[in-house]
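Section 4.2 – Deliverable D4.2 (structural model, holo form)

The reporting period included a commitment to supply a predicted holo structure for the target in complex with protoporphyrin IX containing FE. Inputs used:
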Amino acid sequence: MLNDQHKDLVRSSFESDQMRLEAFIPEFYSRLFSINPEIRTIFPTDTARLESKMLASLTHVAEALVDTERLDAILGQLGEKHHSMQISDDNFSDFIQSFTGALASTLGPEWNKETHEAWTEFLLYIANRMRFSPPQDVDQTTL
Ligand code: HEM
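Output (structure tokens):
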């Protein structure tokens, strides 16, 4: 269950000086494609488009900190798009695990059990709004 403390922790990761996208983005994709090499084929091949996909995702993730009806509609549509790309609940787990793993290595000492839990809950909440149900025991491996 997502609470205000989770949201505060997620917000402070976003605002951290350590949060360098030029480190986070390649780290995220390298984790995702090594956990699941098959998923590589549905992603664009060029780095610029991969980066812009992640920037678009991060924008939606940041917007989800302010819960609005508009956001619900946007995530609903985004979810449909992802379902039509045959993305599965297990793929979503891999995504969350890669995302939190890349955050852990980017944020270094600012990453701990609490931030890990907050981000996992937050990404599960977004998955839910996109009508995915990744397994709840997702992401036990990065701490
Ligand atoms: C936090 C969850 C996620 C968010 C907010 C998100 C956001 C987005 C956005 C905004 C786009 C661009 C849509 C468009 O062009 O209209 C996109 C595309 C895409 N997403 Fe996601 N996504 C998420 C999770 C995932 C997951 C779990 C996968 C698969 C493991 C995935 C794979 C893709 C792919 C393959 C594309 C198409 C990229 C392209 O061809 O340019 N996404 N996503």
